[in-house]
């Protein structure tokens, strides 16, 4: 069965969570675009690439300390949702 998700954009850094996010996106999307943002606003960089390629999905890793939903979303996700 072919995935309904065409393009996924993934925020990637050296964190294990980012590598896991990239692996998951590769399983569910037909096309995966990696965004490596070293300077500036990470959410802006991810959002720009997602807009440019008309992404169906944006995937980011979650740091261990944020895994509890009660602690809220991280700053990158919060900015992407604005």
Task: Describe the overall structure.
This protein has three helices and three strands, in the order E-H-E-H-E-H. The chain has 82 residues and is α/β, with parallel strands linked by helices. Strands 2-1-3 form a three-stranded parallel beta sheet. Helix 1 (16-28) links the parallel strand 1 (5-11) and strand 2. Helix 2 (42-52) crosses helix 3. The radius of gyration is 13 Å and the shape is globular. It starts with a strand and ends with a helix.
Secondary-structure blueprint:
Elements (H helix, E strand, L loop, with lengths): L4 E7 L4 H13 E7 L6 H11 L4 E3 L15 H7 L1
Parallel strand pairs: 1-2, 1-3
What's the main sheet like?
Answer: 3 strands, parallel
Q: What's the alpha carbon Rg, rounded to whole Å? A: 13 Å
Distance between the termini: 33 Å
Report strand %.
Answer: 15-25%
Shape: globular
Secondary structure class reads: alpha/beta
How helix-rich are the residues, as a percent range? 25-40%
Tell me the number of strands: 3
Mean pLDDT: 82
Unreliable stretches covering 5 or more consecutive residues: none
User: How would you write the strand order of the largest sheet?
Assistant: 2-1-3
Could you state the order of secondary-structure elements as H and E? EHEHEH
Given the structure, what is the number of helices?
3
């Amino acid at each position: 069965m072919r995935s309904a998700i065409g393009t996924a954009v993934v925020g990637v850094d050296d964190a294990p969570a980012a590598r896991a996010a990239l692996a998951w996106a590769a399983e569910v999307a037909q096309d995966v675009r990696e965004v490596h943002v070293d300077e500036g606003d990470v959410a802006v960089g991810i959002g720009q690439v997602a807009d440019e390629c008309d992404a169906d999905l944006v995937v980011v890793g979650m740091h261990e300390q944020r895994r509890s939903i009660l602690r809220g979303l991280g700053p990158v996700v919060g900015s992407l949702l604005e």
